Fold this sequence. Notes:
The structure is a single chain. By secondary structure, the chain is α/β, with parallel strands linked by helices. The protein has 2 domains: 3-68, Up-down Bundle (Transferase, Pyrimidine Nucleoside Phosphorylase, Chain A, domain 3), CATH 1.20.970; 82-255 and 262-322, Pyrimidine Nucleoside Phosphorylase, Chain A, domain 2. The protein is 46% helix and 11% strand. The chain has helices spanning 3-8, 21-32, 38-51, 55-68, 97-106, 125-131, 140-150, 157-160, 162-169, 171-174, 179-183, 203-216, 271-282, 290-302, 309-322; strands at 82-86, 111-115, 152-156, 195-200, 220-224, 240-244, 247-252. A 7-stranded mixed beta sheet has the order 3-2-1-4-5-6-7, with helices on both faces. A hairpin with a 2-residue loop joins strand 6 (240-244) and strand 7 (247-252). Helix 2 packs across helix 4 and helix 6 packs across helix 13. The longest helix is centred in the first third of the chain and has 14 residues, at 38-51. The radius of gyration is 20 Å and the shape is globular.
Amino acid sequence: MFLKxxxxxxRGPNGISGFSEEDAHHLFGAMLDGGVPDLELGAxxxxxxxxxxxxxxxxxxxxxxxxxxxxxxxxxxxxxxVVIPTYNGARDQANLLPLLVLLLRRxxxxxxxxxxxxxxxxxxxxxxxxxxxxxPCITPTQAxxxxxxxxxxxxxxxxxxxxxxxxxxxxxxxxxxxxxHTMVKLLDPFQGExxxxxxxxxxxxxxxxxxxxxxxxxxxxxxxxTEGEPFANxxxxxxxxxxxxxxxxxxxxxxxxxxxxxxxxPESIQAAxxxxxxxxxxxxxxxxxxxxxxxxxxxxxxxxxxxxLNRVKAIAAVEAASLMS
Length: 325
């Protein structure tokens, strides 16, 4: 049944052919359902990793995921819910994604975080969120209640999409990432009503994700990842692009050259130290890093806080400065 797909991925660097959107949809659906035997599954995931997924394959894979993941209702708010994936964690520099979460909540933006509970040797956002009192929801109902009551929920991958969680877990056996690691960047359990924060470290994947967002008319902010996570590098702002309705616009250009900012950093990348540093930022003892303040502004704009980008830039700047007053 899966032989034709394996053959298509085994023709050498000059002969590898991609799958149609329909074939990709069928294949990834079978993977998510546990319907592909281990030997064939390993061969397929390894082949896709070598080839890298085409845009049509990403669209087919994404359709299969959407059909199988949980659905949530956006909380009652005039603003779109920010959907934040967190699947990498810190290895060399502090993971400041939870700081962005707290800034968004400070101005009333609903936030849904989804990701792994284990950092596999890295400092996962889950560890820092726990230090900040934000615990994972263990059922979809608990996540919905938390969103409705607090405007914030953290939901593990195994709850939002068990099939994706199973594919992610294969990294330990295969030693490589697979297509599930790309798919988790693109989840929106609000069926298109949320705003996705999408990022990638590899420029090729960054471009391909941009094409995906355009062709699927997703609402998203796309940027270069920091430590594999979707927060702005606190030392040097990345380009931030807004996607909506098939159109894209650059909200902030990338800073080039030597870093312009010497932002304060946590004493170590460990969860407790990072959480303590974030608490000091939110208490006004340490300034918000400028690039993260700009990403904060981009989120305000894309979520509908204001249709005037200059206004949200000013609001974000004032809000960040007010923490210091």
